[in-house]
Amino acid sequence: MMKKVLVFILIIPILITGCWDMKIYERIGFILNIGVESSKDEGLLVTYTSPVIAEGKKQNEVELIEVTGKVLRDAREKARRMSAKLLEAGKIQQLFVSDEYAQNKSIHQTFEVLERDPTDPIHCWVVIVEGSPSKMLKALSKFTDKPRPSIYMDNLLENSSKSSYIPDTKLVDFDICYFAPGIDPILPLVKLSGQEVIAIGSALFSGDKMTGKINTRQTFLTLAMMGKAKKAEFASIDPLPVKPDFGNERDMSTGLVPVKRKIDVEIENGRPVVNIYLKFNGYISEYKWDNLDEATVRAEIENYLAKRLENDCDETARLLQQHGCDAIGIGDIVRAKYNDFWKSIDWKDAYKETKINVDIDVNIKQFGVIN
Questions:
Q1: What's the rounded mean pLDDT across residues 185-210?
Q2: Where are the alpha helices (DSSP H) in 202-288?
Q3: What domains does the chain contain, in order, with CATH numbers?
Q4: H helices, E strands: number in the chain
Q5: Could you tell me the pTM of the whole model?
Q6: Buried b / exposed e along 209-221 (16+ C-beta atoms within 10 A)
Q7: Which residues, in sequence order, are CB contacts of 297 under 8 Å at separation 6+?
Q8: How is residue 156 annotated by DSSP?
Q9: Are strands 253-268 and 232-235 parallel, antiparallel or unpaired?
């Protein structure tokens, strides 16, 4: 009897197993890029690109479709009626959003359909465009000296994030920060400039609306305070003070790598006080003084860089507070460490009044091989 029951249990899953609808590869148009901005009627202006794969066509040629709609799925259905192939979103590489749309509309609500559909990728880039994504994608599709737009942009974003010019923020990362109390997302910020697309920094968010922008240097410092910076190279970080023996000020190129971060949060007189400690290792890649072999000169440069970076971090932290963007995750620490205090306040208001102190130590490992 037990054998019959066991056989029955094993057969049932086979009989009731479902499967995906069959989709023939050659008949599908894979959407690689989506550009979203406001249309003239307050709806969506959506731009899609998909690769053109046919005999006699160039390898980097793409089909570009521009439609309007009230929601993203409505726009996709309209685009399907204009494409020779069935458009599918399972291979999306980048989602581009205009800065104007990000400031006035809900990013999360716009892309919620991508989070609900299991066939849509959640590890695609979410990028803010200074200007029109449609204009940028049209320009990219006409560049003859560059690969397909999705490949070009993926390489640009990957390399820029490795140099800490922009944050490495995918759709899933945005969702985590959006839903987590006490953390706000920051997204890569790019713009079209002539025949190039340039990474210019980060877009700051409070919740799911864009509230401000920071440049690439401030992005590196923000990522360092978040514990996510990889490396950065500052060309002419600032001329060092004039030395009597050397005449004019000397510019300097410096490479920095964060090696340690520590954050301590205390509540003093009903106000959060945050102390951030950062340690950087670095090297001097370009400098015109010839006495870098002297310990006193090296120590002076390290102290100068530490002080300069502390001032820059203080300024960057104030910008984050001014725009209501808790990218560092201070609120998450307060919520975990002082939960009763967290429940008694509105963090959006308390965050702007939080005191943030930054202490930096710079250790220059390499001053050059020729002294």
A1: 95
A2: 216-226
A3: 25-214 (no CATH), 216-371 (3.30.300.210)
A4: 13, 14
A5: 0.87
A6: ebbbbbebbbbbb
A7: 289, 291
A8: H
A9: antiparallel
